[in-house]
Design brief:
755 residues; alpha/beta; eight-stranded mixed β-sheet; eight-stranded parallel beta barrel; 30 helices; elongated; phosphoenolpyruvate-protein phosphotransferase activity; metal-binding; kinase
């Protein structure tokens, strides 16, 4: 007998039971009889979750006196293991299993073989269904699959009949309890909220089909639509992001056209399941196989199939939207395999508190945007799928690279204390909004913000910054499906300038390519970049794609009509590159004059110093520029030959290394008397201890993330520049074993907080 035929025989009889007027207990009593007879098994039992324990609810073959008496804790005995791990067991000799728990009141000592499956409702085990036999034997695959199919039907009956505690079936603390997920810190911060899946799981409420052929046609149509989507994704990717992304798409295509997958779903429909239940039924089998796989590469591919199954399930059920389209109702920690920057921006920033990703890297576009939004992100979260469920409470500590799922009271109390301290500090910093940051010795320090989104401009007045020291124009390119037209660029730049009012905005020309690849813009010269951060990107790409740079130059010039315009070129490695970029703007300026267009009332050009070679040509560059901004993120990784996206090199990426500080001090000394304004734009300037060091080596302008403005203003007001300059000079002349420790001790002795 096939699995479909075995299951169909059972389901046909179960139909009659479910439609009867029997009370729920009576129905379960009949269910175990039907399953035992159909599978020719001497024992069939149903355990259900009540008050956090698995309770024997119905049995054929065991002692009836054990019903509602025998109870097992989650993780106790074979049934407890099935419920805890939501997995299937198939044993020829049950007593030989290390977790076997003998209960004498059941009279089960004469039975040897055992097979059990979880009864799952809305992704949680609410009970178990098991069979036993006197002869030692493993159950056939067709019998196991029939049990799994019946368990799906039982989940519907059990949930609707109220046979399990509502708390047990919806919250799941009794199943897994507190868990800690570890991962890679992508954006620092702490946050708390309710777990919400970016692509919510489809809840299957109807599992028994009324018309098998109609369900089959629904699946066929869903497969066609899914394949069209995969082909569309593949065609868009032809412009080349390469690497892992292409591998995933190829795997998607392989599974989407896999006849075996479709055949298994068809067989599940033949057994009497709806299209949704059939897909979920096959997906359960996939999850069980995933738990048995040790090969990480093969496990990843099985995860890809899980993703496709979810996509197919959403299509067949008509539930295609993301959590963003449904709207966030409470403070949320968003769960996703991966996210695009445009997808992240769809969420309500008031409710989105943090993000947990199964994948993700430090250079991913979404991380750049999340950092700008001030949303902490933890990536490469291990075991996320098997631990987090929709609605779970999560406390995210991206600073430490961990997330607490369903935290216990002690963890909640610790986080509550940290949140309270954070709010207290934020309130104190907010009072500095209208206070100008003068040092104790009376020197005015410029504190500006980095931005890239239209909404970021509101932060100027909220934190009292002096202006925007870095507006990342590439954000508009990263969140667009196609190359942004000149008119769209002009509109954005004009909106930003109007919102900034009298405060300066320094626009950095587009920094895409390399590790910020966009699918609609590819360069043959960039193919095969083994180190994209040092590849064909930023100004190098802009000078090659002259049309792109001309369009941006004209957009900026038109947007700044009647106002001052500050333009900064990224990734300048030699002075001639600055000249070439400025020439593009000069040509557009001449053209606009010929068209009698209103022009900016002044234009100031600057360069990002992030390529070490440019520091060696500083004397040649200074006469050409009005200002220089040192980009510490790229500069540091180039100086240390340490990829900042590689977690193994994190300890080498130290901004308080004497090497980087000596290099930065040389830049400061090289600009003295030139009239060229010098600043720092990067994460380094937004950290209190690092900012203290920067003040000590001569920097007087910092451009930082908006949330760091208050803390840095507070720091500035506590510093005497003569003192810190003398200390830094001594340390850099004769570096201590740990300059970070020395600087921290120096600050602590003067009552300056640096955490």
């Amino acid at each position: 007998m096939t699995a479909a035929a075995a299951a169909r025989t059972i389901l046909t009889r179960l139909h009659e039971v479910m439609a009867s007027r029997l009370h729920p207990q009576g129905k379960l009593d009949q269910v175990v009889q039907i399953i035992g007879e159909s599978l020719d098994s001497e024992v069939c039992s149903i355990y259900l979750l009540r008050e956090g324990m698995l309770e024997l609810f119905a049995t054929r073959g065991l002692e009836q006196s054990a019903v509602h008496v025998t109870r097992l804790a989650i993780g106790e005995g074979l049934n407890g293991i099935i419920a805890e791990h939501i997995e299937t067991l198939n044993l020829a000799e049950a007593a030989a299993h290390p977790d076997f728990a003998y209960r004498p009141e059941t009279g089960e000592e004469k039975f040897h073989s055992f097979a059990g499956v979880p009864i799952v409702y809305r992704e949680r085990a609410v009970g178990t269904l098991c069979v036993q036999h006197a002869d030692p034997r493993r159950y056939e695959d067709v019998e196991i699959e029939a049990l799994q199919t019946v368990a799906m039907v039982l989940s519907e009956l059990i949930a609707h009949a109220g046979l399990v505690d509502e708390e047990s079936s919806t919250l799941g603390e009794a199943l897994t309890g507190p868990q800690v997920v570890t991962g890679l810190t992508l954006v620092k911060g702490i946050a708390g909220g309710i777990a919400t899946f970016h692509q919510p799981r489809v809840h299957i409420d109807h599992v028994v089909a009324e018309d098998t052929e109609a369900e089959r046609q629904r699946v066929y149509r869903a497969f066609d639509k899914m394949r069209d989507q995969i082909e569309a994704m593949a065609s868009q990717a032809e412009f080349g992001t390469g690497g892992e992304h292409d591998d995933i798409l190829e795997t998607y295509k392989m599974f989407a056209y896999d006849e075996g997958w479709g055949r298994r779903i068809n067989e599940a429909i033949d057994s009497g399941l709806t299209a949704e239940a059939a897909i979920e039924r096959v997906q359960q089998r996939t999850r069980m196989r995933m738990r048995e796989i040790d090969d990480p590469l093969l496990a990843d591919r099985m995860h890809d199939l899980e993703d496709l199954s979810n996509r197919l399930l959403r299509i067949v059920s008509g539930q295609l939207g993301t959590a963003a389209t449904q709207g966030l109702k409470r403070d949320t920690i968003l769960i996703a395999r991966n996210l695009g920057p445009a997808e992240l921006l769809e969420y309500d920033r008031r409710r989105l508190k943090g993000v947990l990703l199964e994948e993700g890297s430090l250079t991913a576009h979404v991380v750049i945007v999340a950092r700008a939004m001030g949303v902490p992100v933890l990536g490469r979260a291990q075991g996320l799928r098997g631990v987090v469920r929709e609605g779970d409470e999560i406390l995210l500590d991206a600073d430490k690279g961990i997330a607490h799922v369903r935290p216990n009271q002690q963890t909640q109390d610790l986080f509550a204390e940290r949140f309270a301290q954070t709010r207290q500090k934020q309130a104190a910093y907010a009072e500095l909004r209208d206070v100008e940051p003068f040092t104790r010795c009376g020197t005015r320090i410029q504190v500006m913000i980095n931005a890239g989104l239209r909404d970021d401009i509101a932060a100027l007045s909220l934190v009292g910054a002096d202006g925007i020291g870095l507006f990342r124009t590439e954000f508009q390119f990263l969140v667009s499906a196609t190359l942004p037209q000149r008119e769209r660029q002009t509109r954005l730049y004009k909106d930003v300038l109007e919102a900034a009012g009298d405060k300066p905005v320094i626009f950095r020309t587009v920094d895409i390519g390399g590790d910020k690849a966009v699918p609609y813009l590819d360069s043959e010269s960039a193919d095969g970049d083994e180190n994209p951060a040092m590849g064909w990107r930023a100004l190098r790409l802009g000078l090659e794609r002259e049309g792109l740079m001309k369009a941006q130059a004209r957009a900026l010039l038109e947007a700044a009509a009647g106002k001052p315009l500050y333009v900064m070129f990224p990734m300048v490695s030699e002075p001639w590159e600055f000249d070439a970029a400025k020439e593009v703007f000069d040509q557009q300026l001449v053209w606009l004059k010929g068209q009698k267009k209103l022009l900016p009332d002044q234009i100031r050009y600057g360069a990002m110093l992030e390529v070490p070679a440019l520091a060696e040509a500083l004397d040649l560059l200074l006469p050409r520029v009005s200002f220089i901004s040192v980009g510490t993120n790229d500069l540091t990784q180039f100086l240390f030959a340490a990829d900042r996206a590689n977690p193994k090199l994190a300890e080498r990426y130290d901004w308080l290394s004497p090497a980087i500080l000596r290099f930065l001090r040389r830049i400061v000394q090289g600009t003295v008397g030139s009239g060229v304004e010098l600043g720092i734009c990067g994460e380094m300037g937004g950290r209190r201890l690092e900012a203290l060091a920067l003040l000590g080596i001569g920097f007087r302008r910092l451009s930082i993330t908006p949330v760091a403005v208050g803390p840095i203003k507070d720091l500035v007001r506590k510093v005497d520049l003569a003192e810190i300059t003398a200390a830094m000079t001594a340390w850099l002349s004769s570096p201590p074993l740990s300059l970070r420790d020395e600087l921290s001790a120096w600050a602590e002795a003067r009552g300056i907080e640096v955490d």
